[in-house]
Amino acid sequence: MKLDQDMRAVIQAAHLCFAATVTPERRPNLSPKGTIRVWDDDHLFFLDIASPRTRANLEQNPWIELNVVDQISRRGYRFLGLASLHRNDEVYGEATRRVFAEEGATYPVEAVVLVSVDRVEPLISPGYWTVTDEAAMRAMWHQRRAGLDREFEMFLAKRPPFQVKR
Fold first, then answer.
1. Is residue 1 predicted with pLDDT exceeding 80?
2. Cβ-based neighbours of 124, under 8 Å, separated by 6 or more
3. What does pTM read for this prediction?
4. Domain boundaries, the chain
């Protein structure tokens, strides 16, 4: 399945996806991935930084679905395919090099998940039923997002800062 320019642009804008896998007990597992990138015309990848359940699920069943949505445009794609795990090989080296160069940071990476995209389906918000086009949707969400951000900032100001304990 060829990834077109729009798919690439949505992935580049979002840099966040939700990866769905299936546990050995046949239960869904959904996990956010903040390093989704295009590998080539037919593959996507993300760095497995702290996802032992995703990794374990893929070792048992390599099918995966990645949902990528641009929050302001309220549209994106479902990418479905087979995943392969890479550790200490050429894919691992190239994938970590790309992400680290772009982010200007390094951190431990357990594996690289390379997804061979088999099928793509659009994800489009029903909000488009009430706006004329994507420009109108983006304008509405820029304004709405600013208000939501202000509300959350006020909430955060009333409590201690969130910190991750290591």
1. no
2. 74, 75
3. 0.92
4. 5-124, 129-159
Distance (Å, rounded) from C-alpha 114 to C-alpha 144? 35
> Band of the pLDDT at 123, cuts 50, 70, 90?
very high
Q: What is the dihedral of CA 37, 19, 108, 58, to 10 degrees?
A: -110
Task: Read off the pLDDT of residues 64-120 as tens digits, 9 standing for 90 and up.
Answer: 999 999 999 999 999 999 999 999 999 999 999 999 999 999 999 999 999 999 999
CB 7 within 8 A of CB 77: yes
**Spatial separation of the C-alpha atoms in residues 122 and 6, rounded to whole Å:** 11
- Tell me which amino acid residue 88 is: N
Whole-angstrom Cα distance, residue 67 to residue 73?
14
CA angle 154, 160, 161 (to 5 degrees): 80
CATH architecture of 5-124: Roll (2.30)
Which residues fall within 8 angstroms of residue 43, CB to CB, at 6 or more apart? 114, 115, 116, 117
